[in-house]
Amino acid sequence: MKNIKLLSIFALVALGAVFIxxxxxxxxxxxxxxxxxxxxxxxxxxxEDISKTADQSFKIGITANHTSNIKTFTITQSxxxxxxxxxxxxxxxxxxxxxxxxxxxxxxxxxTEIYTFTVADKDGNSTSKSITITNLGDPGLNLDVLTxxxxxxxxxxxxxxxxxxxxxxxxxGGSLSSTEPNAGKDIQDSTTSAETSSWxxxxxxxxxxxxxxxxxxxxxxxxxxxxxxxxxxxxxxxTSFVKITKGDVYLLNLQSSGSYALVEITDVVSxxxxxxxxxxxxxxxxxx
Length: 288
Known about the structure:
By secondary structure, the protein is mainly β. It is built from 3 helices and 17 strands. It has 2 domains: 100 residues, Sandwich (Immunoglobulin-like); 143 residues, no CATH class. The strands form 3 sheets. Strands 1, 2, 3, 4, 5 and 6 form a 6-stranded mixed beta sheet that branches. Strands 7, 8, 13, 15, 16 and 17 form a 6-stranded antiparallel beta sheet that branches. It has a 5-stranded antiparallel beta sheet with strand order 10-9-11-12-14, with no helix packed on it. The chain starts with a helix and ends with a strand.
């Protein structure tokens, strides 16, 4: 009986040792949490890789948080693949960085600029995120910004099946009707006679102009010749037809000539019934 008790105790001790070992192994394999770091969005900030011209100011905003205190926050810059240059090396003792805004200016010459933001805790657990700015160099001329016509009215392209002007010429400026030459129609509503009861809010052109949809932030970030040409070169495949919704921003290659415009859709209005007075309202920037 005594031998049986000793064996039972030994078995329990052995089982406990296995349990303790297993718990230790699980803890050892659990990675320590890292800080969370995110870029601030919105038209005021850069939150993704972008092309900008020389000597141009910009803002990058971040927020960060961690389960334990953030001990360091650093920003570095690398030009054309060179060594990282410290721009900020700050000691902290906070779980949350509610908002930090870095104000920068691109270099005076063309190249590649990488800005890296890093937050870390006392144990060295860190998170880094980078933004690459492609410096285009000489910006060229600023784009002309047009929001209203000579009469102070906003720009509109109406349903082409109706009696109002359903085309617009960005190259020369001005609204155009169905009886006017196609050569001036960089934008035209493409409603067909079979769609008069269900207006599709769709654009095409009649002179070879093509379209590329870009991010909504492009309206604010594209300001000059170099930036608009770079945006067209890096965008998606151009198309001759686009489905329009409010807030869309489109690049236009006017008459496929290498002269560009940027259009923001400010409203899309579908009128009642089949009066064909539906319209798209817009504003635009173009090269001088």
